[in-house]
Amino acid sequence: MLDWRVARAMGRRVKSITRLLALAPLALVAACATPSNYPSLAIRPGERVQGTFQPDVAPSDSPSLAPVPDAPSAADQQAKIAALVTLAQNRHAQFESAVPAAVQLVAAAGETGSDSWATAQIALADLDAKRSLVAVPLADVDAMYVDDTLAAAHRHDADAARGTILDLLRQEDSVLAGLRARLPG
Questions:
Q1: What integer pLDDT is reported at residue 67 of this predicted model?
Q2: Are 137 and 87 in contact (CB under 8 A)?
Q3: What stretch of H or E contains 80?
Q4: Per residue in 37-69, pLDDT tens?
Q5: Which residue, 139, 145, 146, 157, is CA-closest to 88?
Q6: Is the confidence at residue 176, as pLDDT, over 80?
Q7: CB–CB of 134/95 below 8 Å?
Q8: Buried b (16+ CB within 10 A) or exposed e, 25-56
Q9: Is the Cβ–Cβ distance between 85 and 137 less than 8 Å?
Q10: pLDDT average, residue stretch 68-89
Q11: 1 vs 4, 6, 14, 142, CA distance in Å?
């Protein structure tokens, strides 16, 4: 049970807190009413626009349009797509030639943090770099695919090239996933 003195002291505290809360808005209003020493935000004479501007050349009656570049011919497009697929296949061959060494290093990897584990990680990073080189021609083929789509042109060649390069990338992803699964840690 509370002593009457404690209850009386608590009542006084509640009253004083209530008075302070009632005075707080008055203090805020009073702060807004005090004169300020801040500069005015009105436009100063130096900020006013003066003078006139004259164009260098007289405007023509009709705007001139930039010439539209000629669209590449279908033969040029097919040759470029074929070159990109060949580039991707050559880079895929480089990836495949680096796989046996990486397999050996992953098989010989010791515990996490050891020198052999770090060497295996470097071999995997090298394979990742070779994989990204295969993805570069895919980006170019994708851009051609989008251009053909926007121009409402036939996109079968670009679509077939995309499929070929994506298959190469899936094979490489599978190899990398298998090696990472065998690596300790």
A1: 55
A2: yes
A3: helix 74-107
A4: 777 888 887 777 776 767 677 666 665 655 545
A5: 139
A6: yes
A7: yes
A8: eeeeeeeeeeeeeeeeeeeeeeeeeeeeeeee
A9: yes
A10: 81
A11: 9, 10, 19, 81
49-56 long-range contacts, Cβ below 8 Å, gap at least 24? none
Structure tokens at 169: 């990338």
Dihedral sign for Cα 149, 151, 156, 162, please.
Answer: negative
Q: Is 113 left (phi over 0), alpha (psi -120 to 50) or beta?
A: left
77 neighbors 144 (Cβ within 8 angstroms): yes
Exposure of 42 in the CB half-sphere (CA atoms within 13 A): 3
Q: Model confidence at 151, in pLDDT bands (50, 70, 90)?
A: confident
Across the chain, how many H-helices and E-strands are there?
Answer: 4, 0
Asked if pLDDT for residue 120 goes beyond 60, the answer is yes
**Residue 43: which residues within 8 A CB-CB, separation 6 or more?**
none
* Cα–Cα distance list, 20 to 14, 16, 54, 78, 102 (Å): 10, 6, 65, 83, 75
Backbone region of residue 2 per phi and psi (left: phi > 0; alpha: psi in -120 to 50; beta: other values): beta
Write out the two tokens for 132: 């990204």
Distance CA 7, CA 12 (A): 9
Does residue 36 carry a pLDDT above 70? Answer: no
